[in-house]
Specification:
The complex is a heterodimer of chains A (142) and B (112).
Chain A lengths: L6 E8 L5 H14 L7 H21 L9 E8 L3 E8 L23 H8 L2 E7 L2 E9 L2
Antiparallel strand pairs in A: 1-2, 2-3, 3-5, 4-5
Helix pairs in contact in A: 1-2, 2-3
Chain B lengths: L2 E6 L2 E6 L3 E2 L4 H13 L4 E5 L5 E2 L1 H16 L3 E5 L3 H9 L8 E2 L11
Classes of the chains: A alpha+beta (142), B alpha/beta (112).
């Protein structure tokens, strides 16, 4: 019998970076509590903290700056064998495919965030759905 | 961003007293380091013992400091990284850019 039941965490925050700590901490706690995960749980906890921080930062950056009441929604779906993160923003959106990996020989000060998400997780998609964009990140837990 | 600064053995040592460097406070760290360099403090060691988490913007702030120090014939180095923080530098290969010592004292030991 599995000790970790399936559950979801759904959070809506204003588009302000002061909430990054909160979102990152939720990811870290979820990672540390995944008792059935056989890999390095401390590393997973750090990676979930990082990926949620980077994804939320992106959503805040791409948010509708005209609207002070704009929000970012973060949904984390913890299933038996997979963890699915969805980050919803109301900005202009971007094409995930056109963003190159960083040039490690001449690293720039920005552009590493999506690299972390792509490298540390198993799949990433960014799609438009009506009035919002959804960054969907999947991590296998087996 | 809570930091303290000390002058030791010809280095300006910057102690970062935050558990987290992310997009909320990294610009402040970047500006602080650039201000040090403007004051001709170009040999800087950033001591990161208390930092448990760094994101891409935090790495970017330190890289910015490194490049500006180098442009003034100085050097920005790092010490006392927590293992998970060090792994971020390894993943981006920034461990080949920065001189990183396990302990701050390692910078002051003279080879003889």
């Amino acid at each position: 019998m599995n000790s970790t039941a399936n559950f979801q965490v759904d959070v809506v925050i204003p588009t302000q970076t002061k909430y990054l700590h909160l979102i990152g901490s939720i990811g870290e706690h979820i990672g540390k509590d995944l008792e059935d995960f056989s890999g390095d749980r401390d590393a997973l906890a750090y990676h979930l903290n990082l990926v949620l921080t980077e994804a939320t930062t992106n959503a805040i950056k791409h948010a509708n700056s005209e609207d002070p009441k704009d929000t970012v929604r973060i949904n984390i779906d913890i299933q038996e064998q997979e963890l699915i993160i969805k980050v919803y923003d109301h900005g202009q959106g971007f094409d995930l495919e056109t963003i190159p990996n960083p040039d490690f020989d001449q690293l720039k000060e920005n552009g590493m965030g999506l690299f972390f998400i792509k490298t540390l997780m198993d799949s990433v998609t960014y799609t438009n759905s009506g009035d919002c964009n959804i960054l969907e990140i999947r991590k296998l837990l087996i | 961003m809570i930091v303290t600064e000390e002058k030791t053995n010809g280095f300006s040592v910057l102690f970062v007293k935050e558990e987290r460097i992310d997009a909320h406070n990294s610009a402040e760290l970047k500006d602080y380091i650039l201000h040090m360099i403007e004051q001709s403090k170009v040999n800087i060691i950033v001591q990161l013992e208390q930092v448990r988490f760094v994101d891409s913007s935090g790495l970017g702030a330190l890289l910015s400091g490194f490049k500006h120090a180098e442009a003034k014939s100085g050097r920005l180095s790092l010490s006392n990284l927590q293992p998970q923080v060090l792994s971020m530098f390894e993943l981006t290969r920034l461990n080949r850019v920065f001189e990183i010592q396990t302990d701050l004292q390692d910078f002051f030991e003279i080879d003889c």
